Amino acid sequence: MIVLNQLRFANEIAERPGLNIPKGEKVPKQEIEMAIKLIDQLTTKFDPKEYKDEYREELMSVIKQKAKGHPSRKKGKAPQKTKTDDFMKVLKASLKKKAA
User: pTM above the 0.85 mark?
Assistant: First the structure.
């Protein structure tokens, strides 16, 4: 899923001179082609009416409960990290599975 972020204004962006951000690396052509293939296989027509803002609904519910003096509740367990040593292997398997 691709997530879009809200546009940030210049005054909202802080300079971080001590932050050591690595320079871009050359991505192998095979990896780029595989990524494009994966994106093409997973691309569907987008209809915003099919989705509802569950985050906002849940947030408003929590706000209303807290305003009434009720404690906030935790929901479910946090997702566990997936352990993978070979990302390319996982992508190739995903492409084969989707194509089948």
Answer: no
